[in-house]
Amino acid sequence: FTKAHKRQFSTTDEELAIVSAKNHKQAMDNPNAYSHKPYTISEIMNSKNVTEDLRILDCSYSCSGSSSILLTSEENAKRFTDEPIWISGIGQKTNSA
Known about the structure:
mainly alpha
């Protein structure tokens, strides 16, 4: 994906690092974030490459977690709440190194 994005939009490694630095900085405001350490663009640019196009600090941390959704009919949903949530689509993605 990164290689295709770089090719299509002429994205530079530094521009990717800018996005990573912003994401790390914003995580500092989230008490539930996995990491609260800010990184400079330089630190990100100098971090170890994990692929040809990505460095370790460009990537999300590996962690375990789960979620669940209770799907039911409209009729049944009204038994549980006056304000059901309607799902128009759903997706999932799992990456492994």
